[in-house]
Specification:
Elements: E1 2-7, H1 15-28, E2 32-38, H2 40-43, E3 51-55, H3 66-72, H4 77-87, E4 92-95, H5 99-110, E5 120-126, E6 132-136, H6 146-164, E7 170-174, H7 185-199, E8 204-209, H8 211-216, E9 221-223, H9 226-251, H10 255-274, E10 283-286, E11 291-294, H11 301-316, H12 319-329, H13 331-341
Parallel strand pairs: 1-2, 1-4, 2-3, 4-11, 6-9, 7-8, 7-9
Antiparallel strand pairs: 5-6, 5-10, 10-11
C-alpha cells in the first residue's frame, strides 16, 4: 500500500478541489491510501475505506511570509502533512500551498540528504517528442553556485531514472549557446564539473543546451538556476494557455473555420491535450530526506490529481532510495567540487 499525505487546505481552492482530486485518484489506484490533512470539520464529509483524516487547526495562506508559516503556524495542514513523511506514516506529501513555505517547512522537518546543500524543485515540461523534459531548479534557489548545479544534475538524473525507467538519462546545462566559452563564470565552471561527472560515469552529460532545446526534447534533463527555471515554467504555462485560447476562438469564428475545425478535430484535440499544463502538474522537491510534491496553487481537480499521480509514482518506484544511491555514487565528485570552491553554501 502506497501512503500519501495530502495538504487538503493548501492552494487557491482548498478542499473543494483537493477532495475531488483525491476521490478520483483513489478510484484509479486501488493500492493507495491517503492521509487527508486539514480542518476536521471541512473533511468530515469525505468517506472512503482507504482514507484517514489527520486534523490540523491552521492553514498557511498563499501570501503568508515564510517566517509565519515556519515559526507561528506549527499546526498548519502543510506542516502536519510533511510531518507524516518524517514520522514514516506516509511515503510522500502533496501540497498546492505557498511554495516558499512548503520548501522551508520541508527542509526544516526532513533536512537535506548528505552531500546536498540546497533542495531543488524539479518539473517536467512538454516537448516535441510527445514526452517531457525535466527542468530544475524551478524557483527554490535564485542564486546558485556551480556546485549546486552539479548537485541538481545528480538529483534530476535520479528522478528521471526512477520515474521513466531510464538508466542513464541525458543531462544538459542551460546556457546562451552550445559553445564551451559562452555563459557566466558560474555556468562555465558548472560545465567543467558536469563534464568531469560524465567522464567519471556519474552522469550522462550532453553538454550545453539553449532554451529551445528544452522543448525539442534534445535532452532528458535541463539544469539551471531557480530564477531562469521559474521564468521558463511560467512562460510555458502562458504559451500553452494562449494556444488553447486561440484554437477555441478559431473554432467559433465563422462557418468555414467551424468546418475546418470539424475536419481537423482529432489533430487539434491531440494538440490541446499535449499543451494542457494541467497534465504536467506536480513538481518534486528534491534533495530532502523524504518525498514532497508541489502542486500549482491554482490547480483544478484534474491538475491536482496529476500531482498525486506523480507522488504515487515516485513512492512506488523508490525515488528516495535512488536519489540517495546516485548521490552516494557521486559523493567523491561532489565533495571535491565543494572542497575546491572552498565553501558549502547553506
Amino acid at each position: 500500500m502506497i501512503n500519501l499525505a495530502v495538504d487538503c487546505m493548501g492552494g487557491d481552492h482548498g478542499p473543494r478541489v483537493t477532495l475531488a482530486a483525491c476521490r478520483q485518484f483513489l478510484n484509479s489506484h486501488p493500492d493507495a491510501h491517503l492521509l487527508l490533512v486539514g480542518k476536521a470539520e471541512e473533511l468530515a464529509g469525505f468517506k472512503h475505506e482507504r482514507v484517514t483524516v489527520v486534523p490540523a487547526t491552521e492553514v498557511v495562506s498563499m501570501d503568508d511570509p515564510v517566517e509565519i508559516a515556519l515559526r507561528k503556524k506549527k499546526d498548519s495542514s502543510m506542516r502536519v502533512a510533511v510531518q507524516q513523511v518524517k514520522n514514516g506514516a506516509a511515503q510522500a506529501a502533496v501540497s498546492a500551498g505557498n511554495t516558499g513555505a512548503l520548501m522551508a517547512i520541508s527542509r526544516y522537518l526532513l533536512k537535506t540528504l548528505d552531500g546536498i546543500d540546497r533542495p531543488a524543485i524539479a518539473f517536467g515540461l512538454p516537448n516535441a517528442k510527445g514526452s517531457d523534459t525535466t527542468m530544475l531548479d524551478l524557483g527554490a534557489n535564485v542564486d546558485c553556485t556551480a556546485e549546486h548545479l552539479l548537485q541538481f544534475a545528480v538529483m534530476g538524473s535520479a528522478l528521471v531514472s526512477a520515474l521513466k525507467n531510464t538508466e542513464a538519462p541525458s543531462v544538459g546545462l542551460l546556457n546562451i549557446g552550445e559553445e564551451l566559452i559562452k555563459g557566466s563564470e558560474v555556468i562555465k565552471r558548472a560545465g567543467e564539473l558536469l563534464r568531469a561527472a560524465g567522464d567519471a560515469g556519474n552522469l550522462n552529460f550532453y553538454g550545453n543546451v539553449e532554451g529551445n532545446d528544452t522543448f525539442k526534447g534534445v535532452v532528458d534533463i535541463v539544469v539551471c538556476d531557480g530564477f531562469v527555471g521559474n521564468v521558463a515554467l511560467k512562460t510555458t504555462e502562458g504559451v500553452a494557455s494562449m494556444i488553447s485560447g486561440i484554437l477555441k476562438e478559431e473554432f467559433k469564428r465563422n462557418i468555414f473555420t467551424k468546418i475546418a475545425a470539424i475536419i481537423a478535430y482529432p489533430v487539434l484535440s491531440a494538440l490541446m491535450k499535449r499543451v494542457d499544463h494541467r497534465r504536467y502538474n506536480g513538481a518534486a522537491l528534491l534533495g530532502l530526506r523524504g518525498l514532497v510534491f508541489k502542486s500549482h496553487g491554482s490547480a483544478d481537480a484534474m491538475a491536482f490529481e496529476h500531482a498525486l499521480n506523480r507522488a504515487y509514482d515516485a513512492a512506488r518506484n523508490n525515488l528516495l532510495d535512488r536519489v540517495r544511491s546516485r548521490i552516494a555514487a557521486a559523493a567523491p565528485l561532489l565533495l571535491a567540487a565543494q572542497t575546491e570552491s572552498g565553501t558549502s553554501a547553506p
